[in-house]
What we know:
By secondary structure, the chain is an all-beta fold. It has no helices and 81 strands. Strands 47, 48, 49, 51, 52, 57 and 58 form a 7-stranded antiparallel β-sheet that branches. A 5-stranded antiparallel β-sheet has the order 1-2-29-28-27, with no helix packed on it. Strands 32, 33, 35, 36 and 37 form a 5-stranded antiparallel β-sheet that branches. Strand 20 and strand 21 (229-234) form a beta hairpin. It is elongated.
Amino acid sequence: xxxxxxxxxxxxxxxxxxxxxxxxxxxxxxxxxxxxxxxxxxxxxxxxxxxxxxxxxxxxxxxxxxxxxxxxxxxxxxxxxxxxxxxxxxxxxxxxxxxxxxxxxxxxxxxxxxxxxxxxxxxxxxxxxxxxxxxxxxxxxxxxxxxxxxxxxxxxxxxxxxxxxxxxxxxxxxxxxxxxxxxxxxxxxxxxxxxxxxxxxxxxxxxxxxxxxxxxxxxxxxxxxxxxxxxxxxxxxxxxxxxxxxxxxxxxxxxxxxxxxxxxxxxxxxxxxxxxxxxxxxxxxxxxxxxxxxxxxxxxxxxxxxxxxxxxxxxxxxxxxxxxxxxxxxxxxxxxxxxxxxxxxxxxxxxxxxxxxxxxxxxxxxxxxxxxxxxxxxxxxxxxxxxxxxxxxxxxxxxxxxxxxxxxxxxxxxxxxxxxxxxxxxxxxxxxxxxxxxxxxxxxxxxxxxxxxxxxxxxxxxxxxxxxxxxxxxxxxxxxxxxxxxxxxxxxxxxxxxxxxxxxxxxxxxxxxxxxxxxxxxxxxxxxxxxxxxxxxxxxxxxxxxxxxxxxxxxxxxxxxxxxxxxxxxxxxxxxxxxxxxxxxxxxxxxxxxxxxxxxxxxxxxxxxxxxxxxxxxxxxxxxxxxxxxxxxxxxxxxxxxxxxxxxxxxxxxxxxxxxxxxxxxxxxxxxxxxxxxxxxxxxxxxxxxxxxxxxxxxxxxxxxxxxxxxxxxxxxxxxxxxxxxxxxxxxxxxxxxxxxxxxxxxxxxxxxxxxxxxxxxxxxxxxxxxxxxxxxxxxxxxxxxxxxxxxxxxxxxxxxxxxxxxxxxxxxxxxxxxxxxxxxxxxxxxxxxxxxxxxxxxxxxxxxxxxxxxxxxxxxxxxxxxxxxxxxxxxxxxxxxxxxxxxxxx
Length: 891
């Protein structure tokens, strides 16, 4: 044995810079859960062991040959104290800090208040290097690699006893009465030594390769690195009472009386064990290897392989409350929630609970109750959704909330339909009840989707049987009901077998009726034997057809824009009204182009054209099979008295129209783009010179001299639809000296006093005179062009036949019928109209003639699915008007 030498008091202490990487929550547990990493503190090189005295933490840095002193309240290194060579174990006896220096075979005693080295005591020769140290009130106990335990007198450093235990001794812990040594050489054992005598009391078998040991006076905790476990020994009996699995290679352990903390060096984690139950409470990942651990009750300090000490909060806010349960009153007015205390209070007694409730899961109302309260009744306030969560509170703050309990109406039932002929059975599983027991099921049925019959089924009812109507569809809807409300309805559509009459309406993609043409249906192995035409409201009733999915074929039906449509469409029969909705037309079959002046005045007489190759007679819908056919192709025309012209055919989108307007003074050209909108407005850059008669017509006797004044200016331009002028400051131009003449017309004859030509004066006006021979229109021209004349002048001669009827309209309200309406002629010829003669004719069909005394007639006896030519004339005592013609498709 080497002589133990007391080294003189050392007063020199190296104090390094204060360092530390701190988190916002510092060691108080406030707002954090126990087990939260709150700081990583750089220390010396290769820290091996760590111990806390409650105010400071002492770290043995083996490669740096130093001890780092950390201020526990701030997590800052306040001193670095040089000690012996390779310090690898450190202990606190309640007064001083003791350091075992492995290579220099010595023990260093440090005064915590000043960091002063009080003594350095050499150990006996060849101890093999220290492995552990533990100081109690009287002795310091040191272990070495050769299996010896040295008992040192604290006051003098004298080795008073050497206890040989065998090789591979690890950590050591003294509780003042007994000393406990981790001794892997004995096949995995802990040696119990009587502190007062130094005699071995017992050898206790534990797990494989025990590395460290910690005693709290009642129990001894052993870190078994080879079996990845912790053994709990009852101190008074020496019996192993529990074995707790932990992380990989546990090699350091510490107990604070409440929890046991284990550093797992290979799995880079710390295990937290509840001392009272000897159960693993949590595992805290660190991301780096560990070598030492110490808990002071508030914080856990772990020395790590990355030359730092990791600070973990040993206390904090409580865990979530447990055993969350609830009940809802049968009437749905209130719910009662209950819970149990958390499994861990965070190291501080629970002071209360915070309850949050919500009707939307976003906006919460918080209520605080006392620590003894474990239930809460919530007024549901007739809402259909409720949310509840609860958190425990201690001195460190509010813990995490429990998982949210949501109360709501049930979820939608999933319904399965079984049909056997005219019998149907609906089956469903009970859906999620939304947190309140399902009270019933609401069953609704409807033949049209509008009018419903309701039945209430009991909570145990999970099926329903019914009889299906022949050739008709029936809709069943089922919803689950609890005290909070009803789920959304599940919908099942079922079709009765057999045939029934089926009303079908064919409409365009915008919902407008499609008329005429021929319509038939096909389903499975049957089809309609007759093709029918659509009425003007797009309807047809098939006398006998099945319910369910059918194919409806439409041939040459008339679209709202006058084009014809053909195609086959899948639809559903069985309802009081069954609708076939056509796909959209790729482009319009007719496009109206209106030419305007800058102020909005419409301009007749403009020429409009598009390239003929941009217009097609046939177009396909997006489905690739439905065709739309224009009745004809018109690629050019002249705007009428309303300033409009209609181009017919499917026009390529983006086509440029060419518009030319000559007002007799200048010629203007614009090129608007044709879009999918069937109406295009083309506005000229300049207001034109417009020649127009100041009065629109004259009623005279044959041979009378008619005086007409024309002007090239107007304070009231002709605007469509009563619009206001777009640019009120723009006035039509006044042109003087403009030659104007009457164009020969069959309504005129030569007579004395006529003036058929003239020149506009300084006010842009000219007066012409002519004699009337019969009713008709008179045209005027200037400079050889009539394009700029805005209106015709109408001469009505008394004692003649009426003019033609106006604005005829036709519809087919039912099979074999046509409904015709028109307006009376603009001039009745000077005598009352006695009747209207309506003639309907079609190739191969009987011609029908009807005399009417009003401007409306409903004609029956027509052939189904036939397109008729219609002629309407007005009759007075002097004769018959010119015929007004139109066509009508009879269903």
